[in-house]
Write a structure and sequence with these properties.
The protein has 2 domains: about 160 residues, D-Maltodextrin-Binding Protein, domain 2 (3-Layer(aba) Sandwich), CATH 3.40.190; about 130 residues, Periplasmic binding protein-like II (D-Maltodextrin-Binding Protein, domain 2). α1 crosses α8, α5 packs parallel to α6 and α8 packs parallel to α12. The chain starts with a strand and ends in a 5-residue tail after the last helix. Helices cover about 40% and strands about 20% of the residues. By secondary structure, the protein is an alpha/beta fold. The chain is built from 12 helices and 10 strands. It is globular. Strands 1, 2, 3, 4, 5, 6, 7, 8, 9 and 10 form a 10-stranded mixed sheet that branches.
């Protein structure tokens, strides 16, 4: 049996659960077994593992793949990385205890905020967003904790808020079941400013009832997450992974709701070509091109 290695995120995180879902279908439909490898610094670590030949596929946020391709910081040199497929576009958000005074993202000034492991992609999102908003890292106290540890710290009152990755994720579900939480809002002008200045973010609405404690719709930021490979990754393996995703879009969404709407991310390829998903100008892997052409997304 063919065996591949997929780099994801910390266990229970967005990438980890998505990797598990894809691995299930790969083994069922293609007889390909997968080792799901976790990663504390998901996007950055997975790009480096692809370069070193330690994994065949790696989950990343779309804002990182271009940096890896060009060799921009924190990467020391350019990596021959390639786009394979989009994975999801989900809202990232701040939570606070429901009995907290915090209501708005700007209320985080002067507070203790868990923002993810130091050096991780989630921390980089804070830098990107807060740079636009004019909020310095000196304006609040960052706590570099995993999602699980950050949730525990919020529950214990050791931090005032936590930055969370797209839901559904196991850690956020557990947090909302243990305590009452609220999601912080953005001022409309702040949200518009971030979207105008950062091309890899998308607007997202978190609906009431999304998880326990969400009592009304909130407007948030979303980033497109992707699956990457190295240029040397076997094109046939890449073709089979992408074909498995495209052949099972509805089932993927049933297994893991993070995949809901994945078809809408692929759809623009029919008019714009491969460039529609070549984030950071990173070329689509030849194996992915073949799968997308077979499925009717590319002519």
């Amino acid at each position: 049996m063919t065996r591949i290695r997929i780099g994801t995120s910390e266990q229970g995180g967005t990438f980890w659960t998505e990797g598990q879902a894809i691995a299930t279908l790969l083994e069922r439909d293609r007889g390909i077994a997968s080792d799901i490898l976790d990663a504390g610094q998901a996007s950055i670590e997975n790009a480096r593992r692809l370069d070193a030949g330690l994994i065949e596929f790696g989950f990343m946020a779309s804002n990182w793949i271009g940096r890896a391709y060009r060799g921009d910081a924190p990467f020391e040199e350019a990596i021959n990385i390639r786009m394979v497929a989009p994975a999801n576009s989900g809202a990232m958000f701040f939570i606070a205890r429901a009995d907290s005074e915090l209501r708005n993202v700007r209320d985080l000034v002067g507070k203790r905020v868990s923002i993810g492991p130091e050096g991780s992609g989630m921390v980089q999102h804070i830098h990107t967003m807060f740079d636009v908003l004019g909020i310095s890292f000196d304006d609040f106290t960052p706590a570099y904790l995993s999602f699980e540890d950050g949730g525990k710290a919020l529950e214990a009152g050791e931090v005032d808020a936590q930055w969370q990755c797209p839901y559904p994720n196991v850690v956020m579900h557990d947090i909302s079941e243990r305590m009452h939480v609220r999601v912080l809002d953005y001022d409309h002008a702040d949200l518009a400013s971030i979207l105008d200045n950062v091309d890899f973010y998308r607007p997202a609405t978190m609906p009431a009832g999304f998880f326990r404690g969400i009592e009304r719709n909130t407007e948030q930021l979303a980033v497109v997450n992707i699956i990457a490979a190295h240029e040397r990754t076997d094109p046939e393996i890449v073709r089979q992974l992408v074909a498995t995703m495209l052949n099972n879009l509805d089932e993927l969404a049933e297994i893991n709701p993070l995949f809901v709407g994945l078809d809408r991310i692929f759809e623009p390829m029919k008019t714009a070509g491969a460039a529609a998903i070549e984030f950071g100008d990173v070329p689509l892997h030849p194996g992915a091109v073949s799968a997308c052409r077979d499925a009717g997304y590319l002519s």
